[in-house]
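pls ignore typos typing on phone
adenosine-5'-diphosphate + seq
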Amino acid sequence: MLGLMQDQPLLISQIITHAARHHATAEVVSKMVEGGIHRYTYTDLERRSRRLARALQHLDVDAGDRVATLAWNGYRHLELYYGVSGMQAVCHTVNPRLPPDDVAFILKDAGSVLLFAETSFSALVEAVAPRVAGQLRAVVIMADRARMPNLVLPPGMALLCYEEVMAAADETYVWPVFDERTAASLCYTSGTTGRPKGVLYSHRSTLLHAYATSMPDAIGLRSVDRFLPVVPMFHVNAWGTPYAAPMTGASLVMPGRHLDGASLAGLMNEERVTMAAGVPTVWLGLLQHLRASGQLLVTAQRVMIGGSACPRMLCEAFDAEYGVRVSQGWGMTETSPVGTYNTPKASNAHLTGEAEMAMRVKQGRVLYGIDMRIVDDAGHELPRDGVRSGNLQVRGPWVCSAYYGEQPGSALDAEGWFSTGDVASIDPDGYMEITDRSKDVVKSGGEWISSIQLENIAVSHPDVAEAAIVAAKHPKWDERPLLIVVPKPDRSIDKDDLLRVYEGKVPKWWLPDDVVVVAELPHTATGKLQKNALRGQFRNYLIENGAA
Ligand code: ADP
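k done
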């Protein structure tokens, strides 16, 4: 017998119609690439998204077509999120920090037919356009006529102005109702571990993810919040927050392109931001600025960190010095991205000091909807004892089943698990702790050493700005940890003093065999350490330098 409840597909257009009807005055504040602040309400966003959907029809965009974007976080990008997906096309966000080669590869792989780009990416667009000639019908510059750049595009590729295209459309568009499993957006992995691969989200997966992340033990946005997504909309849909904010009625404060500490502190205080989300590098930058300038955070209460391990000092410093609670989430492009979030349980909420910190630096426990387990190399599940670590696998309705262009289910094992490529432990309370990417782990004499843990301890040393651990070849142990550090400005590194920072914190045999001081470390387009480049450079360091 079927239930007798209304059968409503879960569609992205419902989020914005809900926000327009029930949170009509909540704001979208955008710091513009061209300078100045733009502000309007969710009512305006919904109206303009419908106008955009009509404009896309005029541009012959059909259901299922991929429409690409090269843009920072701002209101026009939001209109694309809702207008493109709402009319049943696929919003394909492209990371503009990638080299032109990768951008061209991604546009081709996705087969995108239109490209919406901000003026700040004109050079990138010109570099990429000839390589997608014949495929890309037009480039739409996300600006008004007065700010249109003079771009040279290949024959057959039109150059259009966003505000003109919008002005030529009307607002009579009615959001269509269709199957909730329809593709809504497409995002490519950052390629830390190989060539970028597309992850194709559905309306259903997007709504379930937004629901789940809105729960109080997850990101927990509320309608009283003014939320600043520093995480870019081209990086896993800004962790789904452009959907969760209008769903909950929280206002959005969009930072545009300047993500340095001073710009963020100014925006957070001027726009009364209560919560913000981004990768650790961003918050390290903000902390350095606040400490150097003496500026305070006036309204901020919470910061969400994800994308890389959250250094303990960030939790401690924001709490103690600025009264801001830092919490950590874990996920990946393939998981929409949020899979786990770290908030206390009744069993540990009373912890203080060291014990509390040991809990807070873990990546957290699953959101309802996601299941996870750790397995050994033979695929056998390992105990949840918080000690053993193994390959982390996840499954759930917002975990990808196959990469773009491949057979459904092809990314899963026979039981439907997706292997994350992360190595983790899970404690009896369900808190998962990442110890490594499977490629980054140091295998010394057959035992695993966590590069993340060693890096986190290294950056707690007062002279160290950034640290990386590389598995260097060793004749006896196969691999040993090599520590590569960037000193803070005006500081120098004393190797012995630095290595003393590990005393009592890790087993003696985990100690790095040597320390290399460098001026800077290589990063990926999403700001993560580029471990494969470092491995290439330092793989034989111990052997060549006789340290082994
Ligand atoms: P890519 O896999 O191409 O680097 P993603 O942005 O999808 O791109 O990165 C996902 C990976 O980032 C995860 O598999 C994990 O290794 C790492 N990661 C994400 N969040 C955290 C976290 N809180 N702590 C440690 N690592 C994290």
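Residues 42-58 form the longest helix (17 residues). The mean pLDDT is 94. more later
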